[in-house]
Amino acid sequence: CATASVAAQPLENADALIDSVETFIFDCDGVIWKGDSLIEGVPETLELLRSKGKRLVFVTNNSTKSRKQYGKKFESLGLSINEEEIFASSFAAAAYLQSIDFPKDKKIDPLLAYLLTAPFYEPVGNMSHVLITCMPRVFLREQERIYVIGEEGILIELELAGFSYLGGPEDGGKKIELKPGYMMEHDKDVGAVVVGFDRYFNYYKVQYGTLCVRENPGCLFLATNRDAVTHLTDAQEWAVVVGKPSTFMMDYLANKFSITKSQICMVGDRLDTDILFGQNGGCKTLLVLSGMFSLHLLATFFLNFLVSVFTMS
Ligand code: PLP
Ligand code: CA
Known about the structure:
38% of the residues lie in helices and 15% in strands. It has helices spanning 14-20, 42-51, 67-76, 89-99, 110-116, 118-124, 126-134, 152-160, 203-215, 248-256, 271-280, 295-312, and strands spanning 23-27, 33-34, 37-38, 55-60, 86-88, 145-149, 165-167, 190-195, 220-223, 240-241, 264-268, 284-287. The strands form three sheets. The chain has a five-stranded parallel β-sheet, sandwiched between helices. A five-stranded parallel β-sheet has the order 7-6-8-9-10, sandwiched between helices. The chain has a two-stranded antiparallel ribbon with strand order 2-3.
């Protein structure tokens, strides 16, 4: 939360805010619904904004469902939302891979491919491997596949985008051997590992994904989100994150709907994902207290912040 600088003011003049923007981006959990229950006042608020000609967009970091599945969730809550208005981090992962032309249409210069792998790899061993895997992806082969640690939403969106994948919730894998020096077999054509929330998570998946990222030259490591419930450790800081607060979805939306970012108000319940997402995009932001952050929690953060300032000085 420390990274979202809050010069927050209570919303006294809602009309002025509404008039000053053309698009409202709504976070979902904690703003539209809580679990499977609709939050009070949401239908009326959306109707009011629509009647004023505002564009409404819904963004969720929860990668377990596809856009179509979220469309059904909105419908089950009595809200009629067009699929085109929904952006889940499952979709963001597929859109990101498409934005880097993965794996189609990549013309690999055979000489470049050779220079990047063969000559350094053998003599310098691990070091060159580290260099290669840390480099931005400069070549991607036709047959590359994506290994998924995550649920159905990611699989559906990858398939819609034309990617082939392996892994996913059903991947029970094999028992991991504990013999020294043992390395399990893995697919050398995995060119990206996508990680999202996975209720069927197991050690086999971790080991398989790690092997792909470590052993396949240039293998991309993509995370759908970093919400505290699924917080990545410091060792995984270098994953490319596509959900909020990363700017990827904001850029995608602004481009898709030709919106000027200063004309957007991002409505969310979390400082570290939603509000930072809006701030990173240069949008107006509105924190609601219906979800993660209560006034009490905000006051606690503020007090902790004051204590840390005074104890440091
Ligand atoms: N990821 C998971 C697994 C969740 O359950 C949730 C919230 O329910 C989120 C992410 C955050 O979702 P949102 O961005 O809609 O608040
Ligand atoms: Ca939320």
